Fold:
Amino acid sequence: MPAPSGLNAYPRVHGTPRAVLFDLDGTLLDTAPDMVAALNQLRRENAREPLPFAQARAFVSHGAKALVRLGFPQADAQFFEALRVRYLQIYRTMLSVETTVYAGVDAALAHLEADGIPWGIVTNKPGWLTTPLTEHFAWHRRAGVIVSGDTLTERKPHPAPLLHAARQLRAPAADCVYIGDAERDVLAARAAGMKALVALFGYIPPDEQPRKWPACHWLESPQQMADWLRSLPRHAR
Structure:
């Protein structure tokens, strides 16, 4: 099957990957509606007006700390930590209210499964949030591996979580692709010896320059990512 239009500028990923690994927030799932809603509930609890969704969305991939710092830029260390804990409590209660799978992604994952290409998730989200979220979408039964931010002592941008995932899938790191929407994803993949793709449709703050990250390719939309995944030839076994 030939590569879909717009994907022919992908010269440095040759052959069929032995495995495809993904970040979670902003790559497979659009979690921003629930994460921003939790932040704005926290702000209301502290007598502050909600932040515009578009302003907060860009910080979602950087997790709770970045969102709470955005919402409470003047908080001292002690107050900040209390806010962070409360934010996570709120977010856990609304983990999958408006969160959705990006369009085309589920079908593309099914294509990988049918063609013998294992896939997995490597996220910095803690396991007590990752597990119920992936269970909600029934991915815990489909993913070959799920590595959360507390699965190991190291987190991205350290390569250890990606290398651990590759070992679990019995795939050489050099034959794996990792797709994410943060610079730490690209740096972790490069350090692990994997090929890195950037999900430009994810949560990237406006002051960052993702096209300068040392990746192999940049994916403009969830559909383009899905098209590329579906274009992969069947894995020879």
Summary: Residues 116 and 235 are 6 Å apart (CA to CA). The longest strand covers residues 176-180. The beta strands are 19-22, 29-30, 100-101, 119-122, 145-147, 176-180, 195-199, 217-219.
